[in-house]
Amino acid sequence: MSSITLLGTGNMARTIGTRAVAAGDTVEVMGRDRSRAEQLATVLGGGASVGTWGAVPAGDIVITALLHDGVAPVVVEYADALADKIIVDISNPFNASFDALAHGEETSIAQKVAEVAPAGARVIKAFNTIFRNVLEKGRPDVFIAGDDQQAKTEVSGFVAGLGLRPLDVGGLTMAHWLEGMGLVTVGLANNGVGHWDFALGADEVSAA
Amino acid sequence: MSSITLLGTGNMARTIGTRAVAAGDTVEVMGRDRSRAEQLATVLGGGASVGTWGAVPAGDIVITALLHDGVAPVVVEYADALADKIIVDISNPFNASFDALAHGEETSIAQKVAEVAPAGARVIKAFNTIFRNVLEKGRPDVFIAGDDQQAKTEVSGFVAGLGLRPLDVGGLTMAHWLEGMGLVTVGLANNGVGHWDFALGADEVSAA
Q1: I need a surface site. Which of A149, B20, B26, B49 has the fewest CB within 10 A?
Q2: What is the CATH architecture assignment of B3-190?
Q3: Cross-chain CB nearest to B192 (options A139, A167, A193)
Q4: Mind telling me which Pfam families this protein's record contains (chains A, B) (predicted)?
Q5: Which residues of chain B lie closer than 8 angstroms to A134, CB-CB?
Q6: Could B181 and A181 be called an inter-chain contact, meaning their C-beta atoms sit closer than 8 Å?
Q7: Do B170 and A191 touch (CB under 8 A)?
């Protein structure tokens, strides 16, 4: 069982929170608008609690369920309140036409977060390749990037507890490519796959 | 049935050529070292022919089965001999430690090829996310990027003929992210998956 705090009260917070409550995890919700956090905690049930925006999160794993351009600013705002926490960035920094990354650099939101995170915080990229509808109803692979092995082990335990397969792809620089895989996933939905009920996964090979 | 020319005589040329011959495709091999091309054609069998390096390829689809830093130079060398051909770049421009792209820019080998390709040539990125051993024995998804829809349709037909699933991910700028997925695939092999008998694919979602 894991102890998580969701920063944000939107669709992804609800989706991850729902699975976490179902898995028996301890879930805390923090929203800048406290009433929305309370509303989400009520929807989640399972003893989900509400924390004060900006205060030290109760969860060991803090999931920033925010729009991509809000993630690093919120980590700056929280500052030392996130010391020693595991920060999980799930964002997709798409540009307006969903065909390139908005930051246009050889970086990622997760790496930007690592640059501003307080002492002891460890940053993980995860979940971003999975459409919300898939996370709601499926068992997709969850690709995880990060530099701290212990943090990856903890997040992997959380992911496995949700009934999903965690797959470590390597260090935090790989977050850039996971964000690119988010773009490829959208590209597949709009082109070769033609629908949104799929996720990229690592498929074992059987003989042809 | 497709008509392909393989530029190169290495492992990937042999692997793709073997599947193509088995599928009944017309296969031509071109190598800078003609004796190696003749050797590969003999190994492939199925009436595989040998072309002269630098001459107009017999195949409609020209697969550059070359190391990444050789692809654009060879396209420059062939020049107008590739006019109106479909050029399929399958390369992975990994750096020496296999954790970043060697070109370090917001581009891809496929896009570099498109910059130097002759009139009428259409460039496609495909196959690069698939380990050779998987391409030998499995039925992996083949991600395809390119700007020309007709060329993508032809390459998709070739891929489907090999018994693999072609999946269009979008325009040629997506080649950058497919090259990144090559890195992620290596990262998975070295980390979360722990072996090389898998490929990234688009997995349909069933209810959890």
Answers
A1: A149
A2: 3-Layer(aba) Sandwich (3.40)
A3: A167
A4: F420_oxidored
A5: 205
A6: yes
A7: yes
